[in-house]
Amino acid sequence: MCFILNKGVDEFALLQANLGGGVARSVTLAPFTSFGIGGPAKYFFRAGDPGRLATAFYLAITNKLNFFVLGGGSNILFSDEGYNGLVIKDECREYVVSGDVVSAQSGALLNDLVDATMKDSLSGFEFAAGIPGTVGGAIYGNAGAFGKSIADVLESAVIYGIDGRVKIVKNGYFEFGYRYSRLKDKPELILSASFKLEAGERSRIADKIKSYLELRKAKHPLTEGSAGSVFKNVKKPKLLSAGKLLENAGLKGLRIGGAEVFKKHCNIIVNTGSATAADVKKLARIMHDKVLEKYGVDLEYELLVIEP
User: Fold this and answer.
1) Given 129, 135, 142, 295, which residue has the most CB atoms within 10 angstroms?
2) Residue 138 forms part of a structural domain
3) What is d(CA 161, CA 93) in angstroms, rounded to the nearest whole number?
């Protein structure tokens, strides 16, 4: 049951009553992101099962409460001021492999699915090796690497709409594009998803995963906080690497406060230990403007910036 907020009703009390407790106030978000940056959330709730996840989502929607569903915390930058609303931490981690299909809850970690499918000699998830995200986040942004993306393996998903209804949808429902799904424009909640894979030879699958992880280690920061690619690659009129454009624009190693352009991959900003969200945003703007000035290319952000 969901109670509607009325003027003068205590938001925190309403959240606690409807979510069975477990809602915390003023929780610092930095530890829940790969960047290690972010101020306090007004309210913070850990959802360990799909029912509680859906209840929190519906409660926020019906009461017009600002909310954000947080998965693995990669590719996200929270403001230094934090978030003036409810952050719902998706911790629904269960998954099962049956035949050539893996079904997983929205908070299942991609790396866990990579390992599980490899052990069952299933090919198709190798591209996700080393991506620090969850199933829900991967579908939301059509996460991918090495020429493959989540759209290539997704068969169906169970979603919860803003009307409070649960429905099963097929791959085409998401209108996938490069780092895009319709969820970016029409918010709905992923509860679980099924992925169709192919039988393969375990040793070859393991070798491919190993090679991808080695490539990531060579180009991605190992100790510094980061959020992956800041900008999308340019697809039209021809394919252009955002990293190469940034490198050729002389941005390697540029630093603002504690934020620095990673020397091994210029499309990544690293937190050297003291970076603020303001540092990152200022540095990203300089990177964007330099490429626009030098090449006339208007880079589009892949990094998701969450304002208060």
Assistant:
1) 135
2) yes
3) 21
